[in-house]
Protein 1
Amino acid sequence: MIKRLMCSIREYRKQSILTPLFVVLEVFMEILIPYLMARLIDNIGDMGYVIKLGAFLIICAALALLFGALAGKFAATASAGFAKNLRFDMFRDVQKFSFANIDKFSTGGIVTRLTTDVTNLQMAYMMIIRIAVRSPITMVCALIMAFSVHAKLSLIYLIIIPVLGFVLYKIMTSAHPVFEKMFHVYDKLNNVIQENLHGIRVVKSYVREHHEEGKFKEQAEDIYKYSVKAEKLLAFNSPSMQICVYATMLVIFWFGAHFIVESGGTELSTGNLTSLFSYTMQILMSLMMFSMVFVMITMARSSAERINELLDTKSSITNKENPIKYIPDGRIYFDHVSFAYPGHSRSLRNINLEIPSGATVGIIGGTGSGKSSLVQLIPRLYDVTEGRVSVGGRDVRNYDIDTLRNGVAMVLQKNVLFAGTIKENMRWGNENATDEEIAAACHAACADEFIDNFPNGYDTYIEQGGANVSGGQRQRLCIARALLKNPKILILDDSTSAVDTKTDAIIREAMQRAIPGATKIIIAQRISSVEHADMIVVMNGGRIDGTGTHAELIKTNAIYREIYESQVKGGGEDE
Ligand SMILES: Nc1ncnc2c1ncn2[C@@H]1O[C@H](COP(=O)(O)OP(=O)(O)O)[C@@H](O)[C@H]1O
Ligand SMILES: [Mg+2]
């Protein structure tokens, strides 16, 4: 896990190595300073020596400052760079995800991983290369110095370090689970916010603001509760540290004074005594810092695990070796196909269907009957569980994925536009489309009539998710975008549901003219959308219930007849 995360350090390796180096230099300076101070105090009578030593002290202090600043700078660069690379790696992996992969992680889960979790790791990384290096070295060096100054007095450290260590350990281990819980609630809060903002229009139209506020408040209160609880525990850190520091100093002062007086300064000098105070501070302080790093690292561990889970997920749909890069024609063949969404029961059972190139096929059936699931297999948004889907006479799994998806344009049921102008959105379908081609596609999709009414025409800015166009307008723009790909196969998954019957008919005719040779698959709720198709497929419960032309199905298929009659009796074709 660590190794895989380390891959993201890349060009920041230099800074990552320089940081601990400068930290070590800084520590040496800091250890040297009390020693020099001790010499200075003990030779206070010799003015020349004092000035020389004083100058040296100032240089050491300045160097300590410089090394510290450099270490800080490199640590900041290294950790921020690491986080940047890590985010980029994760984002790139997410882009490669198949639909099945995306189903596994919720959007909220991916967002939290890319934001909070990476930030946690960034902090932990900075602490590791700085403080996790600094604390043990300081402690060891200060202990060596203290023992060399006065071994007997320094025995006190052997008592106080385990004591303080134990107290800090207790505090940290009791605070850690609280922090864990808190992060968990953060996830929930993120999900609540995400869901709410995504569906804010629905929330408003159902006047559910109160209910949503309640949900949010619950999570916010939990976070408050946990963070207060954790901080309350951590508040004991500083006082316990203080008690230990002053207790140690008292002991050293008490016995130290005795030693000085009894030996007349030969066994322990006044200067050395003061240096022991500094070392005490350094030893215990580094112990406390180390315990904090320890907590930070254990907390970052769960973030690292979550990030790793994402990085470890290989796209379930990948290219074969030497994939085919050309689709000969728009023939489609479903050969004993069964399909289940990962972790779910079968959505499609034993589908056998042959569609000749250039045919127009209608698919009709109740909601949940498997219409969308069926067509998603053609551009390999999902892979079949059993059987085989082939396009142009070849198994779709043998094609290069880009080639296949460029050749099979699909207007998804839940389609979206992206923030940007209409033109920019159109060029998503085909980067090289000229203005004329865009206009022609929009004309075929009956989108030009409203685009021409916009003051900015094709430069009209579409807001995120297409918020500023109506449902029917969005559908028409999405169809135009798909037409621009000039595909061999065009699939419209309930793409004209928000368009009136007349426009629906005009679009179908225009499509026939725009891409005459392409195979067209139209999923629809309305019989009128499919009745002129060369072939109509009736879906029911994940199986094909019948195929044929309108006239044939009316005679032979009960479900089709029922849908037809309900729509005719319902007072018109509009549902
Ligand atoms: N992403 C998904 N994960 C799990 N199950 C799904 C998913 N999408 C659809 N299903 C299930 O598959 C079945 C067929 O759905 P779908 O093909 O969307 O039906 P239709 O398009 O005919 O309304 C339904 O029972 C639905 O609950
Ligand atoms: Mg559907």
Note: The chain has a mean pLDDT of 90.
Protein 2
Amino acid sequence: MLLSLALSVLVAEARADGAATYASLCSSCHGAAGAGDGVAGAGLPVKPANFTDPAFWNATRTDEYLKTVTTKGGAAVGKSPLMAPMGAGLSEAQLNELIAYLKTLKK
Ligand code: HEC
């Protein structure tokens, strides 16, 4: 009982941290709700990914893949370099929280 309470608090905190990281590093291009409609993304020739689109979340988008894109940039997976390496300064824990948060944006 206590353990599960502690665990759910931890999970809630991890989600909050992932959300904060997303808001500061990603939302300018990917949009506040992840729809790929951020202000900074609007002027780019390549549209930022829409994380709310269920089609985005196909089997190729594994955690490892998402971490590579986030830390090494789109070019590392054959995508546009306009997706810059954004998460290089994040700890492994922060990165995991961010990826977990990205998945909650799916509609
Ligand atoms: C300067 C704008 C910009 C910022 C900031 C940005 N991105 Fe992106 N991102 C892009 C663009 C543009 C693409 C589309 C690349 C393509 O389709 O070739 C993209 C695509 C992606 C993709 C999808 C790659 C795929 O398989 O199609 C992921 C995942 C991603 N970004 C994660 C993030 C995360 C996480 C952050 C914050 C840490 C972030 N991005 C911040 C511009 C940005």
Note: Helices lie at 2-25, 27-30, 39-42, 63-72, 92-104.
